[in-house]
């Protein structure tokens, strides 16, 4: 492991001041430390942000929204009474990720910014545009069975590994970046799959804001290769408002299919005013899949997305 210096920040201002060129923020370290051991991440300085006053889940005004500190541990987030009561979809998503030991360490901010688990990104002997722009993408002709079917480019076909981020996308959550303002998750991740996020060096996420939820029933489901401690092949965070058998509103986000949580906006538009029936749900799934671009070995995800959308919407209706 490359030698590095260490600093502990007590405030967001201090953290940003300590972050110099080549630095990295250290939260739970459940992803960063692994990448340092592999030689993928080579920070010359770690700025510990676990002591910042951003470790609480609080009411955001009086409407039922929440303000979640970036230093909140994943286990604490999933167990928080307000999260379980108002946003059970989020609690389910968090509990679907990793193991209990990792959730006890991992932080909300770190979870959102964790790196792809593409094996070619983690192997410094292979070409990867995420590690070195212009190096190429070994995954395109290699093992890509678990990689993207949406939004990928010739530069990168990685998928984002976070379960939490998928639920937050469906909940229209925003992130607060110290000194920069408030960003949607689409803005946070940007449109370039070869970049882990659109943040600038030194940018620090301090909170996640979830707006009050409309009248909907929601859930999170995850398809994976084994029953526990595995990243999603495909996942879905979905919520429906159905009245008199007609869909009034919906929220759908997919995981395991793109370099960021994939908000299924075409499906949401198609659902508006439709009857809550299996046949309509199937047509909605097909509409969303029109934008999919499966690769040589991951076309099976088309069937997974189709089935997961239909089954989940049926359960919610």
TrEMBL record:
PROSITE patterns from the UniProt entry: FAD_PCMH
Classification via InterPro entries: CO_DH_flav_C (IPR005107), CO_DH_flav_C_dom_sf (IPR036683), Diverse_Substr_Oxidored (IPR051312), FAD-bd_PCMH (IPR016166), FAD-bd_PCMH-like_sf (IPR036318), FAD-bd_PCMH_sub1 (IPR016167), FAD-bd_PCMH_sub2 (IPR016169), Mopterin_DH_FAD-bd (IPR002346)
Gene3D superfamilies in the record: 3.30.465.10, CO dehydrogenase flavoprotein, C-terminal domain, Uridine Diphospho-n-acetylenolpyruvylglucosamine Reductase, domain 2
Any matching Pfam family: FAD_binding_5
Keyword Ribosomal protein: no
Domain FAD-binding PCMH-type intervals: 1-215
SMART domains per the UniProt record, alphabetical: CO_deh_flav_C (SM01092)
Record keywords, A-Z: Oxidoreductase
PANTHER family, alphabetized: OXIDOREDUCTASE, XANTHINE DEHYDROGENASE SUBUNIT C-RELATED
The protein's name in its UniProt record: FAD binding domain-containing protein
């Amino acid at each position: 492991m490359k030698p590095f210096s260490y600093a502990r920040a007590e405030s967001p201002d201090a953290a940003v001041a300590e972050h110099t060129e080549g630095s990295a923020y250290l939260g739970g370290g459940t992803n960063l430390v692994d990448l340092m051991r592999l030689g993928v991440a080579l920070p010359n300085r770690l700025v510990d942000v676990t002591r910042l006053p951003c470790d609480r889940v609080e009411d955001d005004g009086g409407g039922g929204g929440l303000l979640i500190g970036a230093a909140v541990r994943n286990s604490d987030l999933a167990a928080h009474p307000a999260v379980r009561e108002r946003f059970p979809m989020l609690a389910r998503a968090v509990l679907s990720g990793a193991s209990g030991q990792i959730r006890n360490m991992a932080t909300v901010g770190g979870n959102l910014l964790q790196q792809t688990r593409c094996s070619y990104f983690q192997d410094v002997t292979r070409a990867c545009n995420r590690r070195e722009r212009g190096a190429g993408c070994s995954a395109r002709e290699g093992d890509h069975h678990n990689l993207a079917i949406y939004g990928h480019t010739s530069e990168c076909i990685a998928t984002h590994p976070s379960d939490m981020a998928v639920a937050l996308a469906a909940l229209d959550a925003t992130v607060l970046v110290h000194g920069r303002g408030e960003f949607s998750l689409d803005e946070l991740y940007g449109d370039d799959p070869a970049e882990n996020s659109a943040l600038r060096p030194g940018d620090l996420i301090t909170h996640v804001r979830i707006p009050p939820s409309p009248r909907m029933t929601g859930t999170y489901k995850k398809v994976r290769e084994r029953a526990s401690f595995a990243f999603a092949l495909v996942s879905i965070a979905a919520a429906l408002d159905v009245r008199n058998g007609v869909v009034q509103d919906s929220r759908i986000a997919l995981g395991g299919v793109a370099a960021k949580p994939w908000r299924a906006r075409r499906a949401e538009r198609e659902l508006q005013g439709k009857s809550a029936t299996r046949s309509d749900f199937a047509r909605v799934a097909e509409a969303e899949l029109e934008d999919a671009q499966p690769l040589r070995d991951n076309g099976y995800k088309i069937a997974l997305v189709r089935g997961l959308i239909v089954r989940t919407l049926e359960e919610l209706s």
